[in-house]
User: Fold this.
Amino acid sequence: MTEATGIVGEFLSLKEGTDADLLAMQCGDFYEFFADDAERVAEELDLKVSQKSSHGSSYPMAGVPVDDLTPYVSALVERGYRVAVADQHETADGHAREITRVVTPGTHLESSDASARYLAALVRQASRGEGDTYGLAFADVTTGRFQVTQLDDADPAAALSELYTFAPAEVLPGPDLRNDDDFLVQLRERSDAALTLHATESFEPGRARHRVREQFGAETLESVGVEGDEAAIAAAGAVLSYVEETGVGTLAAVTRLQVYGAREHVALDATTQRNLELTETMQGDSSGSLFDTVDHTVTAAGGRLLRRWLQRPRRDRGELHRRQSSVAALTHEAMAREAIRETLGDAYDLERLASRATSGSADARDLRAAQETLALLPEVADAVAETERLADSPLADALSGADREATASLAAELDAALVEDPPGTVTQGGLFCRGYDDELDDLIDEHEGALSWLETLPQREKDRTGITHLSVDRNKTDGYYIQVGKSETGDVPDEYEQIKTLKNSKRYTIPELDEKERDVLRLEERRHEMEYELFEDLRARVAEHATLMQDVGRALAEVDALASFAVHAVENDWTRPDVTEGDELTIEAGRHPVVEQTTEFVPNDLYLDRDRRFLIVTGPNMSGKSTYMRQAALVTLLAQTGSFVPARAATVGLVDGIYTRVGALDELAQGRSTFMVEMQELSNILHSATEDSLVILDEVGRGTATFDGISIAWAATEYIVNTLESKTLFATHYHELTALGDNLPTVQNVHVAADETDGDVTFLRTVRDGPTDRSYGVHVADLAGIPDPVVSRSREVLDRLREDKAIEVRGSDADGSNETTQAVFDLGSGQFAPGGETQRVETDGSPEAATADESAEAVIDAETQSVLEELQSLDVNETPPVELMAKVQQWQDELDEA
Ligand code: ADP
Ligand code: MG
Assistant:
């Protein structure tokens, strides 16, 4: 291959100097991608590829206009690419290009959706204890939020759980973790985050500490209490250096180091979040999720906060109590609440605007939006202060977090500076109000004076010359000119100098006009420059108030989120749960928060405490087991966000984690899970859950052969009951497990009742104590319209099974009149009766004698025979369920053909 030179060569050498996935290089009015990048981008974004020849070679090339770069880069970043942007600038001898920024999933400012986009770093350090020490840092550059924590003596599962609660868009694994394949595989499998290998030096303790000090001030580490937390500091330093290196210019928005204890939050791993459908349904839709159901926020920031509350429930009773009290007050004060929500409806996203101001990307409209939103704070605060119940509630404290005076003065400054409806560009003037700056005022006076001289010129000239068809206009080539209609061109005075002849008119200029034109152009240019400079100053001053704007933004968001809880509670008749430090979970007449929206829901009770710790939930298919258990998890979760809950009454002892696992069978069908994953997740639960956790196991063990499944479920139950002592609900179709309820004192059986009359089943959806007494599967088959002979035969087989008796396989004579037996399945051995001896059963007393072989031949053809043989030789316990399904399908096809 020939060495590329020229523009492609420049591209390739810039590309080599960056570790970004793609490079967009400015070439005049376009940003171009070349070579492999061109093809990748074209494919992702449906762009046209052309060929660029360069010194005898030809390279693919794809480009976008300079002004359109942002949406293209956004689209690429959303797909997980890191995109470097090289800008072109003038130099003494032509122009040069250099990479000015790298846009990555975690540092992407122009995010189109309102949810947070976290960039995370995760660092592991070996420690003396059993587990390792993990440091985690999270930055949302779109809002300037920065949080760190450290987990001591933890295992990888705990670290990953913590990571997932932030749902990061991009993760920087620390030096030690990069070489841990197991860890990376887990990370990739359970998260959509892009993985970026950021320079190892930036994780180095000394450097990281220095970086953090530089950003937040020398004393900060000590004052927020992470002075000695090396892993946390390493993670924080790496995140900061990465944001700086990508050059998106948002570091200034990161003003505050927030340290949180992982112990403050309820552990919710990625699987649990998915199973509980917190922000997406299992099908991946946001509609129908818990968030979608309870979200009545009216601002983007409020929605973001509410979502975070659901993803990161709290364990701090004081904080939950404060939120509950605010929600309670808001439920009672409907008028004030709706007034506040209406006010909030006009708010813009202050946290994001603060970030845009500090990165220098805010325009005048952004600053106007900031002003209008800042001005809402006193309105909301007054509404709270004027309503006694609200004023006495913790809601008032939420608002006092933002400095009202400083807010008012920033809002006033912006209001006095910017015109009401500023233009979308900041280089064309028209941004500022009169009276903001004396010098600008003078300039504007002069400029407008010159403009009005021009405006009145046509009238003056008409009066002076008597010409009626005369106008003054301006265009790019001719500048200002006087235009006179063809019929009157003979009447123009001598000083009119002709500059152009058109079909119906002529254009002239006069010395005064030339002079004024020069004035106007000069004034215009000065005015644009001056306004731009003033605007940059103003933006910089606003950026200095980033923290204030973030405070106000968060205060408004909190009021919005709390009001949203109140609205949902009122509209759906939810109650305030009693959140305690105890370890019971009592739910009276509880409902499932999402299912109740679309169904006439049958409420159910739940009671768990020290002595009644583990419930085995049985009941027919479709009776409501899964719903009942999820409802318990969701009521607990909602209570720990400060929300009211769907129940008549509830007492929720605070939990430290919620763990759910749904048996692989339900997910297998959707190709989403394997038995291996099911077991890995069960393993994670058995490692992580404590006596303060809530564990939900739904048909665990079902993804494998029956005997294996029962054994695993049995052993896991014993382990949870005896060792972990977690509050647990376990739904199972293994009736065998109900025996545990009789023998382990804290294990109880409950069942979802069904009513049976005349062989028909009605699901009552009511949970009662005790195990379910029989399987309703056959009844469901009946309901579904399975032909009667099959249903009645199923009943017979079921009875035999219950009595542990052998079941014979039935066939029939060629004439169909006799029932015969071809083989007997022996339950004890799990096989067909040995020796291939099939017996003739006398069903009609016919004396006719036939050998077994003859009889079999008469009934079974070769094809059927081969299916039977295969069936006979198949080891059910050793065959995964999907394969079994496939097998049965295949046999059915073969029999159809036979
Ligand atoms: P199972 O896990 O026992 O197979 P599910 O919990 O999946 O049953 O519930 C089956 C169906 O019954 C679902 O469509 C669910 O919406 C509905 N359902 C469950 N519990 C209730 C209830 N208490 N009231 C009304 N409908 C319910
Ligand atoms: Mg179920």
